[in-house]
Each structure stands twice: as structure tokens, then as C-alpha cells.
Amino acid sequence: MREFITPDRVANKIRLMRTQFQGSFLIVEGDTDARFYKNLVNKEKCRVASANGKKNVIQVLDILESDEFLGVLAIIDADFDRLENNLPTQSNILITDNHDLEIMLLKSPALEKFLVEFGSEDKIKILNQDVRSILLAGGVDIGYLRWISLKESLDLKFEGLSFSKFIDKKTLAVDRVKLIVAIKNNSQKPQINQQEIKDKMENLISPNYNPWCVCCGHDLIEILSIGLCQFLGSNNSKDVEADKIEKILRLAYESSYFRKTKLYSLIQQWESLNTPFVILHQ
Length: 282
Known about the structure:
The chain has helices spanning 7-18, 31-38, 54-66, 101-107, 110-118, 121-127, 131-151, 176-186, 194-204, 211-214, 217-227, 242-252, 255-258, 262-273, and strands at residues 24-28, 46-50, 72-76, 93-95. A 4-stranded parallel beta sheet has the order 2-1-3-4, sandwiched between helices. It has 14 helices and 4 strands.
């Protein structure tokens, strides 16, 4: 059914809602994003709409702005836009502080709340290292590979990728060669030159790039899922599947965490420039 969620349909739905509701509208990428932001916005003053994808969000906003439709704000994942210096120019589009929404969850105290329930206190204490640092160390190679795929238009397929094929369950370290082989097979692209991809990744890697902007939140949660079965905990794999972890992290995320983000401040700035429209609780 998602293919039927076109920018025109979403824009028309918002227009129709405006006939009954004079407040603001927040457009986000997907249904999970919508559920997340609905818990953070002022429900009496703001309605949240899902556009089924980043490109659709931008197109919906373009359609509404061409009609001089007021009081609409869009939030999209930064992805690699900040690293590529390709930030949106429209005043009604804001981006996440780092790579995506899931990174925002992992950077917050919601992770500690989650680990109290699903992690092993003894195993984590022995590490003498922040769990986030371990996740970043593993996820950064995957992030750079995603970035290379984008830069070189390789169209590599990350959906359905089996992380266990290239992650050491005892350390959560990523084997770069095995990663490239796994993504090559998952993408069904036998023509890909593995050494060439590896060289491009290593040429791109730089300490100047913020790993929170390079890493994809979904990848870090996949790594966390593997770690909770042995390295960070003793869970049954079915109990700590990635989609379940994401759901629990969203539920554990508090509005007080959101108020400390740059995104929150940018929304406040937008409100001051777009009175009387309100997104946040006052």
C-alpha cells in the first residue's frame, strides 16, 4: 500500500485536515517517525503526518508552499547531507542533529534505561567502556560503505543484510572484507570489485567526520541486537531483535531528552518566525 502514498495524496490530506483544524502540521518520513514525534508535540496545536520517505516529505512541502499554505514544518533525517554539505535551504525543513532519528535515541539516556532491562550489568562493567563507543566502532565501517554507495551510485542493498556474517559476536568488531563480501552478495552484484570498494572506503575514512553523522542508527541497533545475546547480555535472539529494540527505545525516550537537542531549539526558532503556529509544548 505504501506505493499509493504519493506526495499529492499527502498534500491533499493535509489540505482537507486544514478545513477542520487551524493549527500547525509536522510532516515526517515514516509511520514510526510519526508515532515518535506525536509523543513530543503539542497535540492540541499540531498534527503529525507521514509522507512515506524523505523525498516525499520534500515534495509535499513544495506542493503546499506553492499554494502559500502556512503553518507547515517538515523534519527529515540528515543522513549524509550534513557531511556532503547538502543541507536543505527551505526555512520550513529541519534535519536531525546527527544521522537519523535512531541515532537520537541511542545518544539519549533511553539507551541506559534499555540496558538496565536487557543488558548484563556485570558484562558491561567489565568492558570499562561506554557501550555507545563500541557500537560506533562497529557501525562506522557500515556507514562509510553506505556513503560510498551513495557517492558512487552503486545502489548497494543494505535491506535484509545479515550482520552476523561480518560481526564478531565476542567483540562486536566488524570485519571490513567480510562486510564488503556480504553486501556484494546481498545486492546480487557479482561484478563489484571488492578491493576497489575497500580502497574507496579507506580513502574516505577521516577523523574529521563525526561518527554519529556517518553511522546509520539502524545499523547500530542491529549490532546492539547481536551484542545483547552474548557480549553485552544473555538474551534469546528473538527477544532482542532490532525492530523490538527500536520500539522500546522510542518508548523510553522522554521529552526532557528532546529539549536538549539542537533540533528542539530549531523548532522553537521556527515557531517564533511563524506565529501563531505552534509545534511544541509551551
